[in-house]
User: What shape does this take?
Amino acid sequence: MTDKSIFVLKLTGIDLKDIKAGDIGRLLNDFCKLLGDEYLYFDNIYSGSAVLKVKTEPEYYADKIEKLSKNIVKQSSALDDIHKVMRRYSQQFTDIDAAIFASRTAVNDDDMELIHHIEFRKSLSHTFEQPETFVGKLLKPAHGKDDTDHFTILLGNDKTISVSVPKNLSYDLAPHLESLWRFESLVKFRGVACYELQQKYSLFLKNFDATSFEIIENKTTAKSWIKDFIDCGESGWKNHDDPINTWLEERHS
Assistant: This one.
């Protein structure tokens, strides 16, 4: 593990030496704009294809992922500029490809999660909407200036998504915020998700508009779990003078 969160722009089908120095700086600048420059620091550039790496503190990881997702959805000028650079080099390097990877804690590039495949050629993707339900831990609420607020939640697979919540629903959710943070309860959002089906049959969540929510109270405590564990008659744990210590010794032997 590392004490920094890492974001990587990786170009394949071309080597670092084949890219002009000015274009490397251009790509790095655009990459940082996609993530948001604030709290972002340069980490490394190296061959093995062409890898550009930046880092941030782990507490800003979710913010950077959210910023990246928004800039990808709205096709920001930084993303458009990356497309232009890629298209120019693709005339000579026909197998060139690019993708963005990230990880909150991973050290090795192979352990990075694919966040977005950069499709700089004519897009063959299409979008569709469907009813969806997401359950997660609330990371950050953000009041919007329009008629919606935005909540970032952490899913069970450690991925974060941005949830668009209408004001009336946001007001209903407000009294539960203490429970969601203090007691680590979960929130279940139901609504409509818009997905983009990209090349290579990968799905990208463009946006999710919540229409309702449900609070899932955190009722699991270590004390109650251990008591249930010991009280299971057929397990034989009740026969030990100190069942918890016995279990710990066996668990770590």
